[in-house]
Structures
1.
Amino acid sequence: MKLTKTLLATTALTVAGASAHAQDMADSMTLVSWGGAYQESQHKAYVEPYLAMNGGVTATWDESSAEAVAKLRAMNEAGNITWDLVDVVASDAMRLCDEGLAMEIDHDELLAPAPDGTPASEDFGDLIVSDCFIPQIVYSTTFGYRTDMVPAGTEPPSSVCDVFDLETYPGKRSLQKRPIDNMEWALYCDGVEKDDIYDVLSTDEGVDRALAKLGTIKDQVVWWSAGAETPQLLADGEVFMGSTFNGRLFSAIAEQDQPIGMLWDMQSFDLDGWIVPTGLSEDRLARVLDFLRFATDTQRLADQAKYISYGPARASSAPLVGQHATLGIDMAPHMPTDPANAGNIHIYDYEWWADNRDDLDAKFQAWLAQ
Amino acid sequence: MTVTIIQPKPISFVAPVVGIAGAFAGLFVGTAQGSALIGVIGGFVLTAALAFLWLTVLRNERIARWVTTLGMAAAGYLTGGLMGGLVGLIFGWLFGWFIFWLGEGRYRAKLPPYTTPMQVFLHFGFRVLCGLIFFFLITPIVVVMPLSFNAQDFFTFTPEMLRLDPEGYSLKHYRDFFTNSDWQQAMWNSLSIAPMATFLSVSFGTLAAIGLSSEHVPFRRAIMAILISPMIVPLIISAAGMYFFYSRLGLQGTYWGVVLAHAALGIPFVIITVTATLVGFDRSLTRAAANMGANPVTTFFRVQMPLILPGVISGGLFAFITSFDEVVVVLFVGSAGQKTLPWQMFIGLREQISPTILAVATILVTLSILLLSTVELLRRRSERLRGLSPG
């Protein structure tokens, strides 16, 4: 499995990848990301050191990744691209690439090789899911639960199927308001083999079967749409367990000391990375590419893991992952890619969802409204 | 029929009415403890029984009210700690007073003796309804304030907060607001955009209102309708339109772009308030000024402007608040460099539910209250000075 290949890579020294042609580069950049702790980690790991090296350059953050596709379309139509580098999830990068709104990248030419000389395309491996996409992190959607709300005399939940077990673990659950992941978890817990999930889901009976399984807990589900909601609901004790991004759970548990436990079973892997919008002027493009080469090198990706528990996308970064910047705890065991956590993972099929998303969204929404 | 204003009421009337009020209070206590239904029933039974006990068995008001207040406070303290005790104290005092106010018929004291029971009912029913509406409007704003002093990073009343433990409270979200560069930049942007947008809307809006109020302007109504349209067209449509228009002009993502967009949104408010004040303006005054040799500019600043100033100021206040509160248009027309406070709050709410937003909201609410009270006090002062009110 190449996704976990990141764990097996060898250690080596870093080479700073920045090459300077300062005279013909723009001196400001607008970077687009998701806000919150994630953007903060990018700022600390990539932007602060880059600005320190390049005096006179300024970087502005725009927290608009959630509507990146729509906004880039509007910018393209208005002929006024105000963003220089955009952080998006892999599926959005594929859409933007197909629509010609993101620039195709030669990864080996534009990105720094690994310290041992491995070309970037090999270092990132099959995380490069699109020609426009420069992966940064591997994150996962997984479950957290209130440790103090586990019924007395019961073991805490250990399997994703405990979400569907209302008898042993009564209480509300929070799930993301979309079919992705939820349908797969439902089928898996209904007895479908992991390898057959997408085959079953391709049939109408399979979709009905997944919805029927979700239907068994429907009246106990709080549906969320923003990543901050599940940690808030867990902290309030409004739900017993809920799905969210693993970094959010890490923050609630390790940084906020909430009585929350974490399930890694059937965690759903996903990727997040940069795209460069098409249509940038030459000086802005030169600045962005210079920054990009620096921000995606082995050391910078490893540095980001000091601030947030998302796995660096380069294989060569994994051995460099150190301790949390303020708490001083080892970050490796909190990474979704850690062998102890990645025992039973779910890799969601981008291509299958790209083909079936619209259809299943409609069915899912209709089911929700019933 | 004898004129009996204050006389004891039958217990068959008092007990159910007190019970209904008790059920309402019980609804909140019950919801907080997990079961609204038990709260409602318990509240009804408890308060109705109290009314019966105090009004028929022990008719000593002083003792009865003390017992109710202290008893409820003790019960509250035993179930809910310090906070519960406080709530119990307030409820106990309130119900002790309510039982005797109702039971002794004191509620008729301020009403004319000839009012029928129906009129009395409507009188107090109306007040209760007003109180409920007020409660409904104010509660969401008030709840935000204690939460902004939360020691945790969640929108949660923690057990420490409910126990009134100082550990549960902190000023860290206020510190975050005043030290975090994102929030400071956002505040600075808001404070530099809103006054400029207000200035432009007031200038253009006042001129437009004066022009449109003179009779010889052709197509007055059509022009007025166009100028007011930003108020009527859904904001998101204006925003999308401005985005594409300003992009072509190179104004999108600039300070002046946002200022112009906000000025366009503020102008209708100024036009409406100034037009309303101009209705009471005597046109012969401008003719008199002209007769005495003043040119139109002097006439405007020396004669017309001072008289319509209240309308101009309130229009300006609306324009300022529109710009200061606006999030949709700035999301389109602004770029990350023009991130205003509402924009920053919107991001914070979507991406990380952080109580810093609540701290900002509390500061803004306090500022608005201060601002509006100041304006109101100044208005009263000027009215008093002009002898318009007895003050």
Note: The longest helix of chain A spans residues 350-369.
2.
Amino acid sequence: MFEFSTKAKQLAIGLTVVGAILWIVGFVMNGSSSHEADHGHDAHATEMHADAGHGANTEHENDYPGEAHASMIESAYKSDQTDSHADEAHDLHSDVRGAEAHADEAHDLHSDVHGAEAHDAHAEHVHHQQQNRPWSALYVAAIFFLGLGLGQLFFLAIQYIAQVGWSAGLLRVMEAQAFTIIIPLIVIALITFFGLGHIHHMFHWMMEGINIEGHENYDEIIAGKRGYLNPIFFIIRLLVYIGGWVWAALILRKNSLLSDTGDGVEMWKKNRKVGAIFTVFYAVTSSTSAWDLIMSIDAHWFSTLFGWYTFAGMFVSSFAATILVTLYLKSKGLLEWVNYNHIHDLGKFMFAFSVFWTYLWFSQFVLIWYANIPEEVTYYMQRWDQYKVPFFTMLSLNFIFPVLAILSRPAKRVPGTLVMASLFVLVGHYMDHYVMIMPGTVGDQYGFGLVELGPILLFAGLFIYVMFSNLAKAPLLHKNHPMMVESKHFQQ
Amino acid sequence: MGHIKHNPIVRALFNDDDIVLSAVKDLRTNGFHVSEVYSPFPIHGLDEAMGLKRTRLSTAAFFYGLTGLFFASWLTYYTMIMDWPQNIGGKPNSMWFLNMPSFVPVMFELTVFFAAHLMCWSYFAVNGLYPGAKAQNPDPRTTDDHFLMEVEIEGDEDALNKKLKDLGAIEISKIEA
């Protein structure tokens, strides 16, 4: 039986407290520094304008950097018909309509034509981006840590419906890990509700009057999506996700614990039903939750495989966490029925889903890159212009490093290489979520400071606390599981 | 598999895979040399029990795949960029690297193609499997429900025979080298 030692408890609580303090300090500092940026703007206004990315939205008074390119191109189409823009603007727009829509020209145009008034709007826009940063950083970490639990919750359900034998000895680890979804879900719900209350401006579509024609915030494209992207339906969906996922985690655990004193086969049959229901539910909600929570930040843009792409990233990072926890428990002399055949299998899953993630990432990228349709390609243009370093770093961490580290069979049976690969995957997928979320909320005002580090520590501490306290609540051996004998004899 | 026989060997026939596996372990811990086991299906853990060296085929496959990757890169470069620059969908065709994403499917497929094919041919070559090669199977029953073990005779032959009987062999025969 695993014991959550006081030392580990202190570490978990310490991480949580330090993380929370760092985030709050970062939040306060961020508030004051963004005011400075507001005033000290004249000095480097030209520079800022020359920077790639976020210029064109000045004329739209758009608070949402992710929409910058989209609105620029949108207006290009409009100007084509109405011809209402200045000559320079028209030149720009014909450029934009071509294959190489380039943001620099937009900046030149705006500094030339709009001058002072553009600067004010721009300053306000940058100010909003800076205000979004602590919220976005908290959100990125929450989504990332949600994935760690959600992936294993799904995997746990699969173990029952596929009648898997080898993993029976690991089910208690998965059960405990599945519970770690609860805190990130609460934080995600709070942040999105704050967005609906206009406390921050991460979600463009939550803006007031976005769907009211004639309103200064009116956005035709988002208004067209109002049937799906409206506050009421959004809240309902979010509550359904939380309810369904937490229900599955609780009931799978409950049945599993009951079997310790009761009938293992009966438990297994019950959990099989629960697993089947949850898998169907998750098949739909994994996609829709990814649209709601992440894709809706760039509300003009859409990608049909975004849900699977997000799911693959969550799934692979959850395996990395499971491997780390399992190896930790083994290093404590526990889980003696789990041997290197089981660890090898976890490694295989992590490797396979790294490749699967890359496949989906590339499928999404290459179609958009090849088709080069303005409303789609803006998504990658912003990442290319402003996020080159995290973009390529996360690609290598998520694909090239795992392939080189754990492609071969012996490497998957050595704890050292597995731990290394797991860390690559965890860092890589944090960065992947960062690159998914940040461009749409903070634009080029991104970085890695207290506000980013804080939430990671905060959630890591809570993850450890929830995980280990749940591991300690029940025996690690699921002794009446009907596949336990098979699991102990698993060999490959 | 084509191995070189040095000593005279004993062939022992078994009718259960678990018995074969434990027999192999027992014999090896007692210093006998189990040179081969014939089985109708793969037995988990037999490789380790026999102390077989791990195949280097997977290492070879990695390099075959790498060859395919380089071949595909060269192929796309030569055909699409250098020899007859192709303008497809207005994509940059002056440099291979700029157009690389559209070549990824080709690179992926040829990597798999080279790895899979060359691995197969290597396997055939190493094991002497060519069209018309004779099957190396001492007893046709090992393709149905029996298991055959070959043990080299080093020293006391009678002791080995007795040991095999004790371990559950149903038939024992001696083959001169």
Note: Confidence is low (pLDDT under 50) at residues 35-114 of chain A.
3.
Amino acid sequence: MSKYDSKYLEDKLKKELQTEYVSVTDESDGCGGKFSAIIVTPAFNGKTLLQKHRLVNSTLAEELKEIHAFSQKSYTPEEWEKVKAQ
Amino acid sequence: MNRICQSLLRQSYQNHRGLVAGASASASTPSVLSRFFAADAATGEAVDKATLDKLVRTNKVVVFMKGNPQAPRCGFSNAVVQIMRMHGVQYDAHDVLQNESLRQGVKDYTDWPTIPQVFIDGEFVGGCDILLQMHQSGDLIEELKKVGIVSELLKAEQAKPEDEKAK
């Protein structure tokens, strides 16, 4: 359906947001309409949850027009350490 | 049949609009857990900022979703409904599938690309991911507390014996 795959989205997020860790999973069985992402970057430092998500949404504004469902978990490196520890 | 439903819903919606003007009337209907307005469609007007400014304040919590709380028509909307149910939150829900101008209107209003969208005390809080994360971190309980809603989860927590609270 959409022309995007997880690799493309990971590369773009890595480049635009200088991510320390990024993982995008295609949940659409290959049609490219549904993704979930874990995004870790210092660019999120000092931002509220809403601001983090807005940053990702604006980075992928063009792609999200075609991607039907996009779910994100966005953490600062510090938050990510805590999440991993759990 | 559909038309009959619509006209019924339209009526209830208009009643609701009256409520907003009257303000205090909502307190007299505590038996309704969540109010749902499907007939936004009936207005036919473009949904502008001034209208949304009012809509997001008709209750402490207002949700724009696909489908209605009894029958969500999207997994993300359903997740929000389930979170609200767990916390025992009474909220107003609007079905954007009934009204394309509301769907676009609310997206423009928040500059947020997806549905569902949740408002607490008139402030845009986020979509499904954010609600889920707030639910998991406990922030949702705090946010609800700020507007005078005591989460059912908090009540359950406080009712527990001390040794179980660590969980």
Note: Helices of chain A lie at 6-17, 49-59, 61-64, 77-85.
